[in-house]
Each structure stands twice: as C-alpha cells, then as structure tokens.
UniProtKB/TrEMBL annotation:
It comes from the Bacteria. The keyword Transmembrane applies. InterPro entries: Spore_III_AC/AD (IPR025664). The chain crosses the membrane at residues 32-51, 102-120. It comes from Fusicatenibacter saccharivorans. The lineage of its organism: Bacteria, Bacillati, Bacillota, Clostridia, Lachnospirales. Keywords: Membrane, Transmembrane, Transmembrane helix. This is Stage III sporulation AC/AD family protein. Pfam families: SpoIIIAC.
Amino acid sequence: MDILRIAALGTAGVLLGITVKGAKPEFALLVTVGAGLCILAGTVGKMQYLLGMLAQMKSYLPVDSSYLNTLLKMLGITYVGQFSAGICKDAGYSSIAGQIELFARLAVLAVSMPVLLALLETVHDFL
C-alpha cells in the first residue's frame, strides 16, 4: 500500500505546485523538487529491502558479487538520471533533460560492458 501513499504525495505536490505557480512562479519548482525529494526518501526503505534480498540471493547462488554490484550501479544511474531529467522538464529545460537521459543511457551501457564481455566469454568457452 506504499504506492498509494507515494501517489498521494506526488499528486499533492503537483497540485500545490500548480497553486503556488499562480501566485509565486519562482517557488513552484521548489515545491515540486521538495515533493520529489520526499518520494526519494520514501524509496530508501525499499532499497534496503532490495539490498537484503540481493545479499540473500548471493548466498544461494555462486554468482560473482561484482555482477550484483553492477546491477545496483545500473539501477542507481537510471533512477538518478530519470529524477534529474524530470526536474529539468518541470523547469522547462527539456533539452537539458534530454541530454541527461542520453548520458544516463550511455553510462548504463558503459557500466554493463564488463558483464556483457563475461557473458560472451562464457558462451565462447561453452561452444
């Protein structure tokens, strides 16, 4: 039921931002960024749960921990990129938001290259 709380917080932040934008447009961005940061703080508990589950998976499977670390890095890159691009779009800077999204995609690709190479080596050794 956390999604209902987060959705209500996000909707309240947007409605408050729209209301403030009519009176003081310079504060509307601060309201939406504040709501976004509150939602980000709410995801910390979920991330702790995910980290615990990944540690449990690591104990069950003989998987190199660097692969799980790479997965976490990719998740972090995509979340931070999407969050900051959303803020830029809200502020009216969609071109900068597009550049942030492009950089996040390239960063995920760069981080995932060692995993892809290990997969290709495994397939090559198998054949």
